[in-house]
What does this fold into?
Amino acid sequence: RAKQEGRRGIRVFDTELQSEVRRGAALEQELREALRKDEFVVFYQPQMDLASGKIRGYEALVRWERPDAGIVQPMEFIPVAESTGLIHEVGERVLQRACQDAATWLDGGTVAVNLSPAQIRAEGVVERIARILGETGLPPERLEIEVPESVLLGQAPDALANLDALKALGVRIAMDDFGTGYSSLAYLTRFPFDKIKIDRSFVAQLSEDAGVATIIASIIGLGRSLSVDITAEGVETQEQMTMLRAAGCRTVQGFLFGAPSREIKEPVAGSEEPVIQEG
Ligand code: C2E
Ligand code: MG
Ligand code: MG
Ligand code: MG
It folds into this structure.
């Protein structure tokens, strides 16, 4: 009987797996179609300087606008785009659009674009980004590339070489979702990031958990001693903002300051004060 149940268990698993594979295959076709019809759009979320209260830049966040089904969030299609290799084309569209839009923001400011690990490892990615910058006229220092820390997992020589080359171009590099992976601190010694983004799961626990507040304060201190800019993600409450400010955090992003939207909220403030510290 146990054997029978075991077998049935395996069959159930197989069926689920099969239907998941089918769904994935269907989605892949739909994503190809969406690329053909140009249905990917870019939303922008403001990044605010806490000291001045001014917007210093925006993060570009992709959405899929389906004519019948409305807006599809990235979590629902980025994983399939990644596993099918379509992320390269989707990502290139996002870069193109984001740089084009940012070039029109009157007073400058940065646009932060997320790149998947496969994109940052890809051959020719540096040349493609350089070409997009040239075509859109966006100065390299106004583009910030956000990569998850897992990009540096293992030896990752390609990722490192490409990040170095991008940095040499003048593009800024940010480590996204800091604190969600393993041995986060070790990655900081491997690559000179310009910015660290503290993951919103930390920010969410800020008011309830004194330990988390201590961790955040030490990340901010570390950032300062390494001359790395720190942005806290997912700031939703006044209390979180107050605590982050007290801990020395300079840049914040979250629903409290604005959700991602199709149009930018307000022009970016003039860049008379540098966003990053010297060093
Ligand atoms: P991420 O890069 O960490 O982006 C921040 C996410 O947090 C966004 O979700 C944003 O809408 C959400 N968020 C911002 N403020 C708040 C807040 O105060 N509270 C809460 N609960 N959430 C907040 P979104 O747009 O759904 O994107 C999810 C993830 O999808 C991104 O996480 C990023 O990893 C990925 N992604 C988005 N656009 C792209 C893209 O163009 N290319 C690639 N490769 N990945 C992308
Ligand atoms: Mg979302
Ligand atoms: Mg990001
Ligand atoms: Mg993030």
Strands lie at 40-49, 54-66, 70-72, 110-114, 143-148, 172-178, 195-198, 229-232, 251-252. The CA atoms of residues 27 and 80 lie 7 Å apart. The mean pLDDT is 89.
